[in-house]
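Q: Hi! First time doing this. I have a protein sequence and I read that you can turn it into a structure. Is that right? Here it is:
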Amino acid sequence: MILAAFFFVTGSKIISGKMAEEFKRFGLPAFFNVLTGAFELIGAAGMLIGIWMPTIAILSGLLLGGTMLAAALTLIVLAKDPFKKAIPALVLFALSIGISLYHIL
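A: Yes, that's right. Below is the predicted 3D structure, encoded as structure tokens:
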């Protein structure tokens, strides 16, 4: 539930355009704000629905995990930021994939 709440907050922030400058800094087109925010909001909703429907939790974990892995790689490769700036995204990647694995195993 905490992970879902986090993604609801960040997804809303991203989709609202409050992080548009960051996406420009990465050299990404403007629609990536909406796409990334939508992925996070859909994934967060799926995490909550996944409490009752494990298949949805698995898919949501994979969606959010992939989004966070892409975020980490964007910071390291495109933005050329130090690795430590990608650590939060990597932690969220691990947590999201962990939820998927929990429901698979």
